[in-house]
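User: For a reading group we're discussing how well predicted structures match intuition. Take Acyl carrier protein. Before you show the prediction, I'll give you the sequence so everyone sees exactly what went in.
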Amino acid sequence: MTENAATATRTADLLVEIFRDVLALPDLTEDTDFYEAGGDSLTAFQITGRLEEILGAEVPVSLVFAYPTPRDLAEVVDADYGRA
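Assistant: Thanks. Here is the predicted 3D structure of Acyl carrier protein, as structure tokens, for the group to look at:
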């Protein structure tokens, strides 16, 4: 596994935990779609708020809507903000 792939995996794991907590779905996986899991604008703001605490940078809520799985969002977070 390359370093970039390993970092994305760790970020995806972090996002899975955030999604699980915010959406109250303990079985959620890194490929679970935010919308299909019952996500809405309030939960999207909760997800980005948690990311902002970890990253120390503003994360647009639109990213959750544009990249609705933890795996997809992790790739963008790593590319735009570095390791979460």
